[in-house]
């Protein structure tokens, strides 16, 4: 891949899990960003332990050669919480802009079960036509607000939410304007569909509007256990559903080729939440970096 077009980041969720803070509670912010840099990454997303004052955070990252490329933002448009969502979005956007990020990764969390004990496959939410309308309307407005600051909004399709499957992604993209992008996550599509082909189909279908990429691998045997035992999303994470590229079932070579052939410009972010007591974060960061160097030429 073209090194001038693509930058590599890694998410802090491998060190400390924001949804389950006990996973990695022993890992400090300074240790996390130092190990990211030592592993060879130049970017990071934002975790719960990161200072939220750019005047404090930026120098701590600059000295390590790390940039902030994105930070998760939860939207609640389908629930009807438009005013509150937009108010909080503006603050979030301004923080990211001050940090130099130009992409905002959002996830529609109305009815989400990703942080609950509900079975992730059997009890995933489904939006009504009105909820779809509210969501699309909200994201169109967010994209316009972001564009005014030279930034772009993306939708992070996610297990346990109303926008998870290829069909749901297609519907969201059809209902929103072209300046609303997709945060393409290999692991969540593969997890949802159990298919490398479905994962690649989403990539090729929405390639022009993919503004940010998460590289996440999946362990088939854990997904099978989640399905068989009606486990929750967080149960699966603790058991090791996700891992870094090269350590699971996904073949990333075609992902890299499709993005490269399309001239993708932006960040690719390793995001693989595991229990850091079982999967040492630094060790897995190095493993991911070596795999990407070998298979993407970056």
Task: Identify the notable features of this structure and list them briefly.
298 residues; nine-stranded parallel β-sheet; alpha/beta; 11 helices; two-stranded antiparallel ribbon; 42% helix
Describe the structure.
- The protein has about 300 residues and is of the alpha/beta class.
- Helices cover about 40% and strands about 15% of the residues.
- The protein has helices at about 30-40, 55-60, 80-100, 130-145, 165-175, 185-195, 195-205, 220-230, 235-240, 255-260, 280-295, and strands at about 5-10, 45, 65-70, 70-75, 105-110, 150-155, 180-185, 210-215, 215-220, 240-245, 265-270.
- The strands form 2 sheets. Strands 3-2-1-11-8-7-6-5-4 form a 9-stranded parallel sheet. Strands 9-10 form a two-stranded antiparallel ribbon.
- The longest helix is centred in the middle third of the chain and has 19 residues, at about 130-145.
- It is globular and about 50 Å long.
- The N and C termini lie close together (about 5 Å).
- The relative contact order is 0.17.
């Amino acid at each position: 891949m073209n090194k001038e077009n693509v930058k590599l980041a890694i998410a802090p969720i491998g060190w400390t899990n924001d949804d389950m803070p006990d996973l990695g509670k022993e890992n400090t912010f300074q240790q996390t960003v130092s190990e990211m840099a030592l592993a060879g990454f130049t970017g990071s997303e934002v975790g719960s332990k990161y200072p939220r004052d750019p005047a404090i955070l930026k120098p701590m990252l600059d000295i390590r050669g790390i940039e902030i490329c994105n930070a998760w933002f939860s939207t609640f448009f389908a629930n009807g919480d438009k005013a509150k969502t937009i108010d909080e979005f503006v603050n979030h956007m301004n923080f990211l802009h001050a940090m130099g990020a130009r992409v905002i990764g959002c996830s529609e969390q109305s009815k989400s079960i990703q942080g609950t004990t509900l079975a992730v496959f059997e009890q995933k939410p489904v939006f009504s036509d009105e909820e779809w309308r509210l969501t699309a309307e909200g994201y169109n407005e967010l994209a316009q607000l972001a564009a005014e600051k030279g930034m772009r909004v993306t939708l992070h399709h996610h297990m346990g939410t109303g926008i998870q499957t290829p069909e749901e992604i297609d519907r969201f993209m059809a209902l929103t304007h072209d300046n609303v992008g997709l945060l393409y996550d290999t692991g969540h599509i593969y997890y949802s569909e159990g298919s490398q082909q479905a994962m690649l189909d989403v990539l090729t279908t929405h390639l022009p509007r993919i503004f940010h990429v998460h590289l996440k691998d999946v362990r088939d045997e854990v997904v099978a256990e989640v399905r068989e035992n009606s486990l929750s999303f967080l149960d699966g994470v603790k058991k090791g559903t996700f891992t870094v590229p090269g350590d699971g079932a996904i073949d990333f070579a075609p992902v890299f080729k499709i993005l490269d052939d399309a001239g993708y410009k932006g960040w690719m972010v390793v995001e693989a939440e595991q229990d850091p007591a079982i999967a040492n974060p630094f060790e897995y960061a190095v493993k991911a970096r070596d795999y990407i160097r070998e298979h993407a030429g970056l």
